[in-house]
């Protein structure tokens, strides 16, 4: 039961993060095209990770320790991303209320907004690297854990190769 709650929490957090990333993409928060691309990358990659989490919901009892650890890392990452987005949205809202009236106040407000966007852009880069690492780690785990099983076509090909070898041997015997 606790394991199911953990999966539900992780998918719930992921859904919240995906909604906030969608908001970031649609709002004036990301005026720069490069930041929009980075946020779009995070959203796409996290959507893929979320799909894996949803598949794991029904398999909680069968999960190996590596997969459980990966899920914990995803949840930690999702909480951190959500905190970064919340901080940025809060700071951006405060930036519009900062500064005084007149020219100097507007310049101070503009500088604060630039500083906030720059800090967020740096955080987005770090988050992007983290998301890539978690995604790659999962791919490596899957590759290491799955052994290719022979398929029906492999067996048929083996049979065909055996028949060819048998025929070659018979031809050599008959021609000499």
From TrEMBL:
CDD domains: RX-CC_like. Residues 13-97 form the Disease resistance N-terminal domain. One of its GO terms (biological process) is defense response. This is Disease resistance N-terminal domain-containing protein. Belongs to the disease resistance NB-LRR family. Pfam families: Rx_N. GO terms for molecular function: nucleotide binding. Residues 39-69 form a coiled coil. Keywords: Coiled coil, Leucine-rich repeat, Nucleotide-binding, Plant defense, Repeat.
